[in-house]
From TrEMBL:
Keywords: Membrane, Transmembrane, Transmembrane helix, Transport. The chain crosses the membrane at residues 21-43, 63-87, 99-118, 124-143, 164-183, 195-214, 252-273, 293-314, 321-340, 346-369, 390-407, 413-431. The keyword Cell inner membrane does not apply. Gene3D superfamilies: MFS general substrate transporter like domains. It is found in: Endomembrane system. This is MFS transporter. Its main location: membrane. It comes from Nocardioides jiangxiensis. Pfam families: ATG22 (PF11700).
Length: 443
């Protein structure tokens, strides 16, 4: 009788390597555009258009230029809250997840490329282009994270998720290093600072589009399993599955508790990340090039942070490790309240602290959630997860924008985010992992 070796672990490893490269690809947008350059550049061109103390007017609202990026992200998230559950419902009924992933990535990167044309005369074009890019970014992440449980066993997920985040920080950091040099030394290469920033935004779009080819080609199609039987066309069936899942959520109270906890602590994380460059330039008085250097510190420290948190989770569990990270975030926003102006070493130390907790907290939250969701509904549950996810936070950015508009200072605005970490941590502490796994059938 002949025997055959089990090749499934090798196939999973091959797909996981391809999957890591989507984090490498999309982190160009997350770092260069969303994290480092878009917000301060949008503020600069908006102030150039209306004056430092002027207001932009839209639908009868007067908007301070300094609050425009926060409000833009808020609108993006409100739209995403409607879009992402439908994206997830469609994805759960399809084996074409790699194609959907690439489609959203290329729509997002094409929209991000339009930011090259953002000037004082095209402020609203830039806002709309960013809205489409950020929505597409979030939709692609819904699909990407839903692929994780399809290409990994439960015992592999903390490692695979952490490795993916490490790839992301390495790839995003590499491009950011190039863009840092271009912005910092723009005079030496014959560019204005504005043109250097615009070329950096364009480079992020190109990077995102190009490296998406690797997961698109390297991840195979996985047939959907255990989907709810609903009659009609794809949209009708997808809305039907979404309605069923909303009704069925009451059967997974632990997953719901985690989602609410994630809403709070991740909104805090994403708002700190999205607002850090604004804080550095507008509040602490650093040049754009200096802030880019701080972002480089975040990116490369976060590679080690993600891997280190993954190893810690192997010893003490993902939940305890995430709670440790949340404690770190509480310290960070408290220190930001009192960090001295124009003290670059202090700012770099704060950036390093963010890097340590950033990757590990998010990577392990992703892998931990896979334990609490039923098979066949990964994309749909991750769509709810990402309605609250990175770069699409809305409670945090709205709070940050409102506190800045009321106080005229970014210090109380960033410190106000401590509420999100305290509430999120308290709710996460109440999550019963063993019960959640029993309810979802993943144990």
């Amino acid at each position: 009788m002949s025997t055959f070796a089990d090749l499934r672990p090798l196939e999973r490893a091959r797909e996981q390597r391809a999957w890591y490269f989507y984090d490498w690809a999309n982190s160009a947008f997350a770092t260069t555009v969303l994290g480092a350059l878009f917000a301060p550049y949008l503020i600069a061109v908006a102030e150039d258009a209306v004056g430092e103390h002027g207001r932009l007017h839209l639908l009868g609202l007067a908007i301070a230029p300094g609050a425009l990026p926060s409000y833009t992200i808020t609108v993006s998230t409100l739209l995403g809250a409607v879009l992402y559950p439908l994206v997830g419902a469609v994805a759960d009924r399809s084996a074409r997840k790699p194609g959907m992933l690439a489609g959203y990535a290329w729509l997002g990167s094409g929209s991000a490329a339009l930011l090259f044309f953002l000037t004082r005369d095209t402020v609203w074009l830039g806002v709309v282009a960013f809205l489409v890019a950020n929505l597409s970014f979030g939709a692609s992440i819904v699909i990407n994270d839903a692929i994780l449980p399809l290409i990994s066993e439960e015992h592999e997920r903390d490692r695979a998720s952490s490795t993916g985040w490490a790839y992301g920080y390495a790839g995003g950091g590499l491009l950011l290093a190039i863009n840092f040099a271009m912005v910092k030394f723009h005079d030496g290469i014959g560019l204005t600072e504005s043109m250097a920033v615009r070329l950096s935004l364009l480079s992020a779009a190109a990077w995102w589009a190009a490296f998406t080819l690797i997961p698109w080609r390297g991840i195979r199609r996985h047939a959907p399993v255990d989907v709810e039987r609903v009659e009609g066309g794809v949209l009708h069936r997808s809305f039907g599955q979404l309605a069923h899942t909303l009704r069925d959520l009451r059967n997974y109270p632990v997953a719901v508790t985690f989602l609410v906890a994630y809403l709070f602590f991740n909104d805090g994380i994403q708002t700190v990340v999205a607002s850090a460059s604004t804080f550095g330039v507008e509040e602490l008085g650093f040049a754009t090039g200096d802030v880019l250097l701080a972002y480089l510190v975040v990116q490369f420290v976060a590679v080690g942070g993600a891997i280190g948190f993954g190893r810690l989770a192997a010893r003490v569990g993902a939940k305890r490790t995430v709670l440790t990270g949340i404690g770190g975030w509480i310290v960070i926003v408290t220190v930001a309240l009192v960090v001295p102006d124009r003290n670059f070493p202090a700012f770099l130390a704060l950036a390093a602290a963010i890097g340590i907790v950033l990757g590990g907290t998010q990577a392990l939250a992703r892998s931990y959630f896979t334990l609490l969701i039923p098979r066949g509904k990964e994309a749909e549950y991750f769509s709810f997860y990402h309605a609250m996810d990175r770069g699409t936070s809305w409670l945090g950015t709205l709070t940050f924008g409102l506190v800045y508009q009321l106080t005229g200072s970014y210090r109380p605005a960033i410190f106000a985010l401590i509420v999100f970490f305290v509430v999120g941590g308290a709710l996460l502490a109440r999550v019963d992992t063993a019960r959640g796994m029993r309810d979802a059938g993943t144990v």
